[in-house]
Amino acid sequence: MQAFQIRYRNTQGTLMRILNAASRRGLDIPSVHAESAEHDHQVTLVLDVNAKQVGQLYREWYAIADVIHVSSAPAHTVTWTSPHPPATVQLEESRAAARA
Fold first, then answer.
1. 12: which DSSP letter?
2. In a 3-state reduction of DSSP, which class is residue 37?
């Protein structure tokens, strides 16, 4: 498992193009975490890939005009900067509010 961190400018469709690069190859995406990062945005994807697929993904992601930087590491070294769901949100309360 590899964790890819992709920094990008949040323009229309950029995140979908990033995700589409993995889904088009039939790769499972067990974890996706997108967040703002200073003036840009960052998405972390955990994928089960081989070395050839890593090279293909890097090439395709860097071909997207709004992608700024791509890096990867073994999946167990990635730590989230915020809890998901946020610790202050109770799921039942938010569902009830959505129905109202």
1. T
2. strand
